[in-house]
Amino acid sequence: QFTSPLTAIFTATSSVCVTGLVVVDTADYWSGFGQAVILVLIQLGGLGFMTSATLLLLAIRRRITLREKVLARQALGMETFGGLTGLLKRIALFSLFVEAAGALLLYLRFVHYTSPGKAVWQAVFHAVSAFNNAGFDIMGGYRSLIGYQTDIGIVLTIAFMVILGGLSFIVIEDVVRRHRFNRFQTDTKIVLAMTALFLVLGTAFYFLVEYSNPATMGNLAWPDKLVMSFFQAVTPRTAGFTTVDINHMADASFVFTMLLMFVGGASGSTAGGVKVNTVGLLAFTALSAVPGKEKP
Questions:
Q1: How far apart are CA 111 and CA 117, in angstroms?
Q2: d(CA 195, CA 212)
Q3: Among 162, 225, 171, which residue's Cα sits nearest to residue 198?
Q4: What are phi and psi of 269, to 5 degrees?
Q5: pLDDT of amino acid 3
């Protein structure tokens, strides 16, 4: 059937910019082909335009020019050209590995709710959407993950994939190589510390504010409330999924959600926002200014 060009270009833009905003429900409106196009755009946008373009050039064995290396280096926040090609390949392989592992875990849960064929597609789509912090879902009815709010396997798998996508490959590689916090690069320490801080504060905030709200999580057992609070602390940082009806959250939760969306994830990650690196650096600068230190 005919699709309005405005609807088409809005959906394409939202997909490649991994915002998750929609004007038509992804599952109810688009065909399987349309959903596949959205998925490809999410993957390209999540990896980053220059990263995706450079990987495509490598795939067709075309020589990468100096200008393209400069753009790719800037997109990744690197200071030198050394190992750029190898890094891009590791980013692609890591992304595919995490998405495949996440898809497998999600399939083992989705297959209990639907046919195996549909479960495979749901698992792949949501694994890619989660890791790339896109927030697109194919559940239908604009429901997002509300229908699975008490399925800890689905909720936590998607939550941790969102976190991995929001940390950036550079940070994860540094953690794997150095193992200990005191050996990490300064940027890695800031990203991990600020991410942990926002996750803990967010979980505690939603748990306390929404605990007795019958329209969100008031009717659930406290362990489910804790898991849902954690999920809500994870997903506003540009992922877009939800396990509660956001329309009925408390006003304080709206304000806190906007704060998390404003901050976003780490530089060089699939997440948006002003970045936890920026917020962390501003916080440490302010703290160092109090006792009169010249440098953070």
A1: 9
A2: 27
A3: 162
A4: -100, -175
A5: 93
192-228 per-position pLDDT tens digit: 999 999 999 999 999 999 999 999 998 999 999 999 9
Asked if 148 and 114 touch (Cβ cutoff 8 Å), the reply is: no
- ∠ at Cα 290 (289, 295), nearest 5°? 25
Contact predicate 50/62, CB 8 Å: no
pTM of the model: 0.86
Contact criterion met (CB below 8 Å) for 71 and 50: yes
The conformation of residue 19, written as its DSSP 8-state character, comes to: -
Look-up of token digits 């349309």: 34
Find the Cα–Cα–Cα–Cα dihedral 96, 102, 105, 107, rounded to 10°.
-80
Judged by DSSP in three states, 98 sits in helix
Tokens 């995490």 map to which residue? 98
pLDDT at 27 over 70: yes
Instruction: Check: CB of residue 113 under 8 Å from CB of residue 119.
Output: yes
Distance CA 134, CA 16 (A): 9
For residues 80 and 72, what is the distance between their CA atoms, to the nearest angstrom? 11
Q: Cβ distance 226 to 217 under 8 Å?
A: no
Give the separation between CA 258 and CA 243, rounded to whole angstroms: 17
Q: Per-residue confidence at 251, pLDDT binned at 50, 70, 90?
A: very high
Candidates 134, 168, 187; CA nearest to 22 is 134
- Residue 294 has, within 13 A of its CA and on its CB side, a CA count of 0
* Residue 136 CB contacts under 8 Å (≥ 6 apart), including other chains: 15, 20, 22, 26, 38, 42, 125, 129, 240
List pLDDT tens digits, range 102-153.
999 999 999 999 999 999 999 999 999 999 999 999 999 999 999 999 999 9
